[in-house]
Amino acid sequence: MENDKKMDLTHHRIGVFDSGIGGLSVLKELLNVFPEAQFYYYSDDAHAPYGPKSDEFITERSFKITKELLDQGAEMIVVACNTATAASIDALRVNFPFMTFVGVEPYLNAYYKETTPSKMAVLTTESTGKSERFKRLKERLDPNGFIDNFSLKNLARMVEEFYYDPGFESAFDRQLVEELLPLQGKNYTHAILGCTHYPLVKDKIEKILKLKALSPCPYVAQRVRELYVKPGKNLSAASTEFYFYSSSKPGWTKKDRENYLGPFKK
Ligand code: DGL
Question: Bridge partners of 114?
């Protein structure tokens, strides 16, 4: 694939990565709140999904991707993946101490933000659900065990496949109903989406489970802007594109900011 990336020094450069296209749910919010920045999105689809992989493997990939994003001049890196955040953000911060990393975590504090104490579920990948970081977060934010965790084996992969092959929506919908079966009949009022692939199909999840789905992505984007934009910092004009790298077809390509969400565009 042609590498049409040239280092863009006129914008502030922010790297974003995920195992695949899940992090586009974070990028979408970043483009809303921080249109002046230039984004370099790395999709590690040659190694997706991360959910069934070991922490060592995911950490090794996170290091490699970070180096690539640094080569593109990234001044901040958003780990737009709950699984990679759980497995590797501590190691990233130790090994690249000059870099600011912003991660994504299952948004368990949502429980206290909703008006009535309600029954909630948190949906994660297998790796996130088993991780020490998630266990600590849950002990801290949900000491009374109000939130039930469901580790979904297939959903990230299904969303990834649907993005590239959107012609099979009814087959996708059927698989989604099946994947969500363990949550049926439990009367949850809310589901926290603890994997960045899931907000891309938020409407479908809400419809099937008849609940409200909660995504941390807008808060992550807001946090990035707060950390980046200090008083007195000059911002360049908004860019109309961003750069995209897919590890299964290596090389940076430009993408239009209007047209990158495929079947998930509303
Ligand atoms: N989108 C990712 C997450 O937030 C990873 C999903 C996967 O690759 O299993 O967890």
Answer: none
